[in-house]
Amino acid sequence: MNQISIKVGSRYRVDRKKIRSSVEKVLSEHARVECVVSVSIVGERRMRELHTQYMQDPTITDVLSFPQYDPTQLDKNFPLLVVNDPITVLGDIVVCFPEAVREARKLGKMVDDQICFLVEHGMLHLLGFHHD
After folding, report:
1. pTM
2. Per residue in 50-70, is it b (16+ CB within 10 Å) or e — as a string?
3. Topology at the third CATH level for domain 3-126
4. pLDDT score of 124 more than 60
């Protein structure tokens, strides 16, 4: 069974079951072993701190992913996700709640749906899928 940790700032209301389902969906499609994933829902100040510290960009972003493996070794490590290892620690996903709210309004979506979209996007990054 996958180990999914969801941490939410006390002022944010989110559907934890939907978030868990989003993580499980991506894992069922792309991973063949049990995985450990952490999802945190944070405010603008925390997201700005993380974005500045790890990406050297002081702006707010909607989602960040922090793999718990060396991404430069992904081609060598990715097969570990499809063998019968006992468990694979993928990493952490951080979603900025206020940014997700803004995006949801702009796109005419429910906030929980946008958060789940961002979580799935972050999961794909943890699994090695990237975009330009």
Report:
1. 0.89
2. bbeeeeeeeebbbbbbbbebe
3. Collagenase (Catalytic Domain) (3.40.390)
4. yes
